[in-house]
Structures are given as structure tokens and as C-alpha cells.
Amino acid sequence: MSQAPNFTEVDPGLRVLMGPGPSDVSPKVLRAMAAPCIGHLDPYFLTKMDETQTMLRYLFETEHALTMPISGTGSAGMETCLVNLIEPGDKVMVCVNGVFGARMADIVERLGGELIRLDFPWGRAVAPETVLKKAKKAGPDLICVVHAETSTGAVSSLSDLSQAAGEVGALFVVDCVTSLGGMPVGIDANKVDAAYSGTQKCLSCPPGLSPVTLSSRALDKLNRRKQKVVSWYLDLTMLGSYWGAERKYHHTAPINMIFALHQALRDICTEGLETRFERHRLHHKALVAAMEGMGLSMVVPENERLPMLNTVYIPQGADDLGVRKALLNQYGIEIGGGLGDLAGKVWRVGLMGSSANRRNLTLFITALKSILE
Ligand code: PLP
């Protein structure tokens, strides 16, 4: 037998997480994760499941019965919504203004959906008038959009896009991975039929779960399917039986991740959504003012900017990787680089969940100034 490997124990030290996610996780949430592991049908756990669903409905601003966390990261939520709602040949319009819209389009094709891809400039919102015009011609079954494009920092208007989907009778599918918990998503007010998120952004919980919510209209489509959902793991007809009254075993729930999410949601409920959204707006404004004061320019026009993800052009002469390395090595601060078309051109500075605080902001601006000098 070969010798057993002998490595040092995990101890990464503390970071200041100001990138596109994960965001800072509070000790309380980490403690909840370290609670004793119990069974996935233990009565105590079942109560925590119900409470988690109630708090998720508050966060999504919805009364949808089918609201629950999927085991997996945000992409699992994306795949869940699409795999359950698309059958081969369905017409699916996907609005692409960054990396994550493109990911949705990729999944639609893999599922045999008839993809109607609408491309918009990166760093700009999706234009609802274009969506409506094209949708009237194409007659899609679904219209999919990313509310908060993390790759660019642009927000799109859910109320306007929802109106377009309503006019053509399409199901409205929304990626709320970055927006949930940091700005209003208004799932019921905006008549969203399916939405998904991730725990590691404005919920300030480690990555690993993807909250989803589906309207009764979406469930009707799911129940009318001619073919089984092609993914066994993400089939909501079965997952709904575990998260609903039946408590029928499907897969072993990631118990301790759900404990962590429960605590993260409790913290959000204690703060209150309005106060939380205002905190994100306030720190975003202060960050933009400070960066513009240093002569940096923002990528996204002011009225289309996300509060929790700030994309700024890398100033001439600055070394992208060198600056990010210095921030990490000298100050423990993580920010993000550009993705896709914006790689090497921008930095992405996150102010998500617990990370949106005065201490982080002051430290980041001071550190950036001193590195760029
Ligand atoms: N959608 C958006 C808008 C995202 O920002 C991300 C991740 O950054 C995802 C989807 C995918 O989530 P994950 O990386 O957790 O799978």
C-alpha cells in the first residue's frame, strides 16, 4: 500500500470578499453550518425546511407554494427551471447581455428547445421594446432574462419585460442569482413564472444551494409535459414531493447547508428587506463616488447600474492581475476580473449582502489608491 498523504488542515485565513461572489459570510451562518448533522426526515429538520421556505417566499416577494432551495449552486437553479419547463421543440427566447444569458441559451439548446437568442450590448440593460417586437413575431413559449448580469453590472427592468412576456402569453423566467436579497425582485408583482438564485451573493451564505420559485402557471406546464423531465436529480415533480406535505424521499438533503441558509435568511428577516436594499444602494453610491473621484470610469450608464456589482474600467497603465494580486496579498481583499468580452478590461467590485459595509468600502478604496499610486 502506498503511504497515506499528509496535508495541512484547512485554514485559509480571513478575506474581505468584494468580488462577484461569494460574499462575506457571518460567523453566525458558519456556526449554523457546524450544527450537529441530523437526518433528512428528522422532525427538527422538517420544521427548519418549512421555515426556510417561508423565509424564501418573503425574500422572493411571492406566495408561490413551490419555493425551495435546490441542492447545487446557481447554475443548478438555472438548469432546474429550464429542464422542467422546456420540452423539445418549445420556442424559447433568451435575452443575452452577458455571460449568464449565454449560459441559459446553451442549456436551452441542450434541451432541444428552439432557441430564439436576442443579443444586447454587454454593459447595458435588455431593451424591453426589442423583446416585445421580436416576441410578437416569434411567439415564444418562454422568455428568459437575467435580472442582474453579474458579468457586466447591468440591471434589466423586470416590470417592462414581464409586460412583454404577458402580451405574447409566454412564461417569464428570471435569473435572480445576484439580485435576490440586494434589490427588489417582486416575483408576484412582476408576474415571474420561474426564478432561481444562489446563496453566495446577496444572501451571504456559502455557495451550494439555489433557491427557486415557480408559479402555478409554470407548474401547469410542468404537469402537462408529454415527456419525463430529462434530469432525474432536478425533476421538480419529485423534489416537490419531498419539500411538500408528502415528505417523500428523493435525495439526501444537504442538511447543514440548509441550516446555514436558514440562519442567513433569519439575518435578512431581522434586517428587513427595505433596510437591506437601502444599505446596498447607499454603499454603491459611496463606492461609485470614490472610484470616480480617483478618475476611474464606470462601465454601465448610471440608470442601469446594479447596486451590488460595480464594474469599472481598468485605468490605463494599470496591470489587471498585478493590482488584484496586490489587493489580495497585501489587504486580503478579493475583487473580480472581467469575464468574456470584458476580460482584461474591467474590474468587478462586489458589495453583496454582508460585504456591503463601511469598513469594507473604506478599506478597498484606501487599498486601491495606495496600489495605483
Ligand atoms: N447567474 C448569474 C447572474 C450569476 O452571477 C451566476 C454566478 O456568478 C450564475 C448564474 C451561476 O451561479 P453558480 O456559479 O453559483 O453556479
UniProtKB/TrEMBL annotation:
Any one GO molecular-function label of the UniProt entry: L-serine-pyruvate transaminase activity
Chain positions with N6-(pyridoxal phosphate)lysine modification: 201
Cofactor requirement: pyridoxal 5'-phosphate
InterPro entries associated with the record: Aminotrans_V_dom (IPR000192), Aminotrans_V_PyrdxlP_BS (IPR020578), PyrdxlP-dep_Trfase (IPR015424), PyrdxlP-dep_Trfase_major (IPR015421), PyrdxlP-dep_Trfase_small (IPR015422), SP_NH2Trfase/AEP_transaminase (IPR024169)
GO biological process, one term: glycine biosynthetic process, by transamination of glyoxylate
Entries under SUPFAM superfamilies matching the protein: PLP-dependent transferases
UniProt key word Transferase: yes
Residue ranges of every copy of the Aminotransferase class V domain listed in the record: 40-338
Gene3D superfamilies given in the database record: Aspartate Aminotransferase, domain 1 (3.90.1150.10), Type I PLP-dependent aspartate aminotransferase-like (Major domain) (3.40.640.10)
Keywords annotated in UniProt: Aminotransferase, Pyridoxal phosphate, Transferase
Binding residues annotated for substrate, in chain numbering: 348
Family: Belongs to the class-V pyridoxal-phosphate-dependent aminotransferase family.
UniProt xrefs under PANTHER family: ALANINE--GLYOXYLATE AMINOTRANSFERASE, AMINOTRANSFERASE CLASS V
Protein name, as recorded: Alanine--glyoxylate aminotransferase
Organism: Dethiosulfatarculus sandiegensis
